Every structure is written in C-alpha cells, then in structure tokens.
Amino acid sequence: MSVQQVLDLIKEKNIEFVDFRFIDLAGRAHHITLPATEVDAETFVNGVAFDGSSITGFRGIEESDMVMMPDTGTVYVDPFTAHSTLIVVSNIHTPDGERYERDPRSIAHKAEEFLQKSGVGTTAYFAPESEFFIFDDVRYESTMNSSSFFVDSEEAAWNTNRKEEGGNLGFKIGVKGGYVPVAPVDSQQDIRSEMVRLMQEAGLRIERHHHEVATAGQAEINFRFDTLTTTADNLMKYKYIVHNVARQYGKVATFMPKPLFGDNGSGMHVHSSIFNDGVPLFYEKGGYANLSEMALHYIGGILHHAPALIAITNPSTNSFKRLVPGYEAPVNLVYSKGNRSAAVRIPVAAVTPKGCRIEFRTPDSTANPYLAFAAMLMAGLDGIKRKIDPSALGYGPFDTNIYELSDDQKKEIRSVPGTLDEALDALEADYEFLTEGGVFTKEFIDNYVNVKRAEAKSVAIRIHPHEYGLYFDC
C-alpha cells in the first residue's frame, strides 16, 4: 500500500486517529497516537519521534531520541477503540536516518535479505501455532514478605465442587482432557470465533480454531503462513486481538508458557520452509518423510544450534517450566515424521509439495517473533551451508515415543537446556551463525544476553512459596 492509499483510506473510513507502533526487545508492542488531522505525506517521510531510553534494552538517556518510520504495508483498522483508529507498524531509525540495529523488525528484514543473497532460495515461509489460556481470574504478587499467584477458570478440573457459580453446571475439563471436545465441555467456542472474526477483518487468513489439551481454557487459533517479517507482524496482530477480545468478554488471555502446574503448557510450534521463485525446496518424493537433502540439512542446523537458538525462541524463566518431559513438551533434540515428542517434527498428513515443511516444536510465545524466526532461519541456513547431516550427528530420525525409551537409550539423546541461564551460556558460546551477513550483531547479542540474565537473576533471588513447604521446619 502506498502512502497516498493510506491517506485515502483514512478519509474513506473516517479515521480519527492513527496509532504508530513499534516492537521492543521482548516482543511487546508500544504505540504513540496522532490525530488523523496531523497525519500527512510528510509523516511517512519524517516519521514519529519517541524516547528510546524508556524502552528496556534500547538506548541510554544520553542518546534517547529515536524515530518510528511507518511501514504502509502493515496498516489495519483497530477493532477495539471507541474512536476510529488506524494501526501502522513502524521500523525504528536513529535520528540520522539509519535503521536501528536493535530493532527486531530490522533484524527480521536483514535475515530475509541474507537468504536472497545466499543463493539458497528467495523466500522463507513461517507459520506459528501460538497456544494460549483464557482465564476468568488472575491474581499475583511478589513482595518482601509474600509471594503468590492464583488463576481460575469456569472450565477448570479443580472447580467440579465450586459453589460460587450459583449451582455448579458441571462439564469441567479434566487434566490433559481438553483436546477438541464439543460444547458444553468446551465453553469457549464463541469467544474464539469472535477472535477469528476480528482477525479476518484485520487481514489474517484463519485456518482453524479449537480447544487445546490442558484444563482451564487452553486454546489455539491457526493462521496462514507468510514470509518471515509479515508472519511476525501477523503474530503481533493475533496476540493483540486475542488479549483484547478476552478483555471484552470479562476474561483474560495469556501466552505464558506454563501458567499451571501439572498440565500441558502453551507452546508456539513454528513451521518453516524455503522456496525459490515459487518452487518449494524442501520436498523430494521418496526421501525420508518426502524431505529433500536441503531440508534435512536445514533440520541439522536447527538441531545443532538448538541450545543457543532456544535462548531466543524460549527466552523466559517460565519457558523452562514447560520444557520438561511428560507434558507433550519437545525436550529431545531429534527429528521425526509425525512424532510430537521430537523437537523437530515433519508433518506428513495431507501434505503437498508446496506444503512440505519442518515444524520446530520447542519455541513458545514469550519469544519476540521477529528475532525467533530470524534466528531459526539463520540456524537452518548454516545447516544448509555446512551440509549438516542430522542423522550422522545422532539427531534421528526417531519414530517411536521417546518418553517411553529406557533410561540408557535416553542418555544418547541430547536435551534442551534446563534453565534460561544455561540457554544464554549456549548462546554466548555459539552465536557466529547469527552474525553471518550482519543479520544479528555481536553488540546486539551481548545486550540481549545482559537483559535476559537480569530477568533470570530477578527470579532466582526471590523466595518461592514451595520452599516454605520444603524447608520451613528445618
């Protein structure tokens, strides 16, 4: 969409405000809103100024001036504001007009450019399956003398005897019993359908929605694959709509990987493939799972660099509460066709040559999607460049349930890091594949690690309620 087309849209839709947004290091959106009367062609040339020193992981106060440069290809009408508002996602520039190296969208764009220059292919496609919970109540605190959290859902297994409902209507979802039941067990059909309706109005192509495995309102909505940066933009739009529709229904949605102990967490399984001028490069009939040699090398790169990669695709302390055996979490660094206990799965049901892809199941939605997809692509391209054979390195294929292997057999399989700090250690030791072509910079990685180390420390030094049960009577 051209600048003039955006200005025409503002008039056509009687837009009152234009909301300019950018994405921070953690993958959260920020915005500044201008009256539509103040937006003209010059706005798209000069951008919108903001204070970078107030954004964690960006700039110090001595060099805080930054500029949002609007991307006219990202516009959509905000479905939630009382006053008609047009949303425009922006790239971040320095005052001298340079792309800011810590801008996640800049890194995503550079990864796409690196692919095109590599000669491997022209386009990388991504499709995330971002799971979430819809709760009725959430409360938490962490103070000097108290620490607690509480979540609740009318669907939850623990509410079979709750009296507050004014007559318990039953049909609660058991632990690990939530996969695609019909109403009245699934009580969230309408709220998910409303999310889908607004996503479609905002330009997303939705393929399906359903209840997920966990009790207490776990859900999934799948949208169509697209190019790397566009898919990251779409995921930000997706999360914005999920959060705000839940709020409209008097509920709250969270993409937190492990909000509940003892049931499945929420992952973000990411499908990816590479095309060359419209020709799929991952398909070869007769190969393992009909994969080409290039696709296997791409898998090799993902699995070889996985410990470092996970610092970006699973960048929270809570991520590693999900990455434990027994809850469908892909903790084993192997690949397999159709096997959901592997970190990399190759879907084989109803797949065409153009639909042939790999699915990296480890990531979760605490990841910044621009960084996560860019890092995945860089790991895969490194595997292609170095012809990393995943089978030769012991990464599979494993077509059995890995969780049912003997302890001796499991010892032969690499696992994901056990903590965020371990993943950050791996990233510090293995980052060169990310800096190829200047996609990520060493300065960016050092800054990223410092920010995430601070998060990990803030959790590690706090008293956990469970410690009282373990140690208070010592």
UniProtKB/TrEMBL annotation:
GO cellular component, as recorded: cytoplasm; membrane
Record PTM O-AMP-tyrosine, positions in chain: 403
Protein name from the UniProt record: Glutamine synthetase
Cross-referenced NCBIfam families: GlnA
Organism: Cohnella abietis
Family per similarity comment: Belongs to the glutamine synthetase family.
Cofactor(s) named in the record: Mg(2+)
Sample GO molecular function, one term: metal ion binding
Residue ranges of domain GS catalytic in the record: 104-474
GO biological process, one term: nitrogen utilization
Gene3D superfamilies named among the record's database cross-references: Glutamine synthetase, N-terminal domain, Glutamine synthetase/guanido kinase, catalytic domain
